[in-house]
Amino acid sequence: MQTASTSPAFEGLLYGRMGHHLTKKIICCPHGDAKFVRFVNKIAHNNPNAIKVSYSENGLDKLIVETKEIPKLNFLEMIFSIVSKAQLKALRMRKQGKIESFIYQINEIEYDSLKKDYPFIGKKQLTKFAENIKSSAPDEAQNFLKEFFR
Question: Which residues make beta-bridge pairs with 13?
Fold first, then answer.
């Protein structure tokens, strides 16, 4: 399995926030990026204030989305995505309140890969994702987002 640093085929990396400490990255599944885009869209529809958006321009431009919401894995995802022990532990720790929130990062290369040649997500979902992120982001991030989602 390749990691995001060696391939634009992103694998849904999440980090958990425990106070000021971040957990090691957790690989969600081979199609974790598509799942997270849909997850953010669902949160934005139900509770737009549950998303905190920031960015990083160190190295590759990265979009950083933080939420206290808990992603749910359905039975088929657990079978076909081969859910790891680390994922299950992180979800359990979030439900117990030990992990305060999850942080999702996607860089510009990974996002371009999603837009151009990724069969698990449609343009409509990506357009909605960009709109949701822009509406949840602070004013100082708007120029960055305009360039990121071009």
Answer: 27
What span, in angstroms and rounded, lies between the C-alpha atoms of 94 and 27? Answer: 16
What is the distance between the alpha carbons of residues 95 and 102, in angstroms, rounded to a whole number?
A: 12
Measured CA to CA, the distance from residue 148 to residue 142 in angstroms comes to: 10
Closest to 130 measured CA to CA, from 50, 52, 63, 56: 63
88 in Cβ contact with 78 (< 8 Å): no
pTM for the predicted model, two decimal places? 0.77
**Amino acid letter, 113:** S
From the list 63, 64, 73, 75, the residue with the least C-alpha distance to 95 is 73
Q: How many CA atoms lie within 13 A of 51 on its CB side?
A: 29
137-144 mean pLDDT: 93
Q: What is the pLDDT of residues 50-108, one digit of tens each?
A: 999 999 888 888 898 988 887 776 776 666 666 667 777 887 888 888 888 888 888 88
Do 67 and 51 form a contact (C-beta atoms < 8 A)?
yes
Q: What angle do CA 85, 56, 90 make, to 5 degrees?
A: 15
